[in-house]
TrEMBL record:
Protein species of origin: Nocardioides deserti
Keyword Transmembrane helix part of the UniProt annotation: yes
Keyword terms of this UniProt record: Membrane, Transmembrane, Transmembrane helix
Name assigned to this protein: DUF4235 domain-containing protein
Spans traversing the lipid bilayer: 54-72
InterPro entries, per the entry: DUF4235
Pfam hit, one: DUF4235
Amino acid sequence: MASDSSKVWSVFSLVSALGAAALAKQGLDKTWRLATGKKPPENPADPDVELREAIAWAVASGVAVGMARMLAQRRAASYYARSTGHLPPELRKDHQKV
C-alpha cells in the first residue's frame, strides 16, 4: 500500500510542479516584455545576448520557476493530506530513505 501511495504522490507532485513551472514561465515572459520592451532571451548562453541581460534572465527565471514549483508541491501535499488523512510518504517525518 505504501508503494502505491508513494507512486500516486510522485505523479501528483510531478504534474503540479510541471504545471506551475509552465505558468511561471508564461508570466515571467510577459513581465520581462513589459519591463524591458523586448522578448526574453531564447538562449542566455548565446554570446550575442548581453551578459547583464543573460544574468538577469537566469536569476529571474530560476527564482520564478523554483518558487512556483515549491508552492505547487506544497499545495499538492496539502491536498494529498486532506484526501488521505496523512502526508505523502516522502514528506512524513518518520519516512526513512533506503
